[in-house]
Amino acid sequence: MVDLIRVWEEKVRLVSMLGDKLSEREIEEAKRDSHAHRLPRPCGLTVHTGLGCKFGCLYCYIYDMGFPSTPRPYPLKGLQLAYALALNPAVAPGHYGTFMAFGSVTEPFMDETVERALEYLDAVAGILGNPIQLSTKAWINDELAARIRSIPDHLSILVTIVTTSLHRMLEPGAPDPEERFQSIQMLSRRGVHTCLFLRPILPGLCEREVEDILVRALDSGAAGVVLGSMRVTGGIIRRLEAVGYPYMREILSRIPGDLKPEVQVTLRMSDLKGRFARLAGELGLRVYPSACAANVDAHGLGCAACKFGPCGDVNKLPDVDEHGLMEISAKYGLSLEKVMIDERGMFLAVKGPRARIAQFREFVKSVCKRRVIVR
Ligand code: SF4
């Protein structure tokens, strides 16, 4: 049975232990940092190893979010980052804790940020022990692959390849896709759970290239594929038009509703995802319904926390401890009035401030690996 109280006690111990190793100034910096406050995304808590990205992919939304094209390492040192994460009320530490997602708003393995990324991987895996996933477009040589392999509890790695013909147009600063197939090979050879990340699916282009990309990923040793939809903003559309992306009509026809300059909109593409998933399956590649499903598999876990599940080993789904739920809700200053658990998930009637309920919900969802519906 999963012991919510023990996970909580471990969180408290980590905050205290890490706090003892940091100066007052470092503690204050970590407390102010967003890693100490923000809620996990569906793929996990996003960990920023740097600020900005020099790869300049035209389909990328980070530039519309204000991130620069000149990268620099994230300012916290490894122990501060671990402290901030342990402090975050929505984060549960440990192997059965919150999924960590590296690489969502930057490339972790750019020259400018690779050392910081490795420092963070060591700190999060070695001190907190959470399951980590990292997405990358970098060329990973044997030395870096060995370094990644040495991270405790292993990693789930996603290597992004979406085109082999228009990469110079669409990903002007990123390594050649040939090098990224080599990255899959280097990591897979060393036993690192590595998947092809076919995200974003670029309408018009990916239909023409998908089979070749899937076959080459499989031949390179990929454990599976994660397919991801394209999100666009007005800025992305303008940038694609400016370079003469040849399949604009296919993209524009899939935009649901109106497009606002900086608001991200997910294209309608369930037809393409379905076709690509069937093809990948026929070719013998495992298809994960989302990035976190690959993370679950890489770490030998089970999860039924959303409608795509259950994922991984269903025998590893933790039992739920109702008494622990009551005690944990009190730690958040909440009143848990009713608990109902069935095969669809957990239904909790909770009273208290909304922000605290959201943090409590994320903590419980991470540890119990169940859908948590709060009323
Ligand atoms: S059930 Fe699967 S897709 Fe859903 S959160 Fe869990 S691992 Fe991710």
Structural summary, described in words:
A seven-stranded parallel β-sheet has the order 1-4-5-6-7-8-11, with helices on both faces. Strands 14-15-16 form a three-stranded mixed β-sheet, covered by helices on one side. A two-stranded antiparallel sheet has the order 2-3. The chain has 375 residues and is α/β, with parallel strands linked by helices. It is globular and about 55 Å long. The protein contains 14 helices and 16 strands. It folds into two domains: 4-303, pyruvate-formate lyase- activating enzyme; 319-375, 2-Layer Sandwich (GMP Synthetase, Chain A, domain 3). Helix 5 links the parallel strand 5 (132-136) and strand 6 (156-160).
Number of domains: 2
What CATH calls the topology of the largest domain is pyruvate-formate lyase- activating enzyme
Separation of the first and last Cα atoms: 25 Å
Helix content percent band? 40-55%
* Distinct small-molecule ligands in the complex: iron/sulfur cluster
Instruction: Give the strand content.
Output: 15-25%
Name of the CATH first level of the largest domain: Alpha Beta
- Give the helix tally: 14
Multimeric status of the protein: single chain
Instruction: Summarize the helix and strand pattern as letters.
Output: HHEEEHEHEHEHHEHEEHHEHEHEEHEEHE
List the uncertain runs: none
| Helix-strand makeup class | alpha/beta
Q: So what's the overall shape?
A: globular
> What would the average pLDDT be, to the nearest integer?
95
As a whole number of angstroms, the C-alpha radius of gyration is 21 Å
Q: Give the strand tally.
A: 16
CATH architecture of the largest domain: Alpha-Beta Horseshoe
Largest sheet: 7 strands, parallel
Strand order, biggest sheet?
1-4-5-6-7-8-11
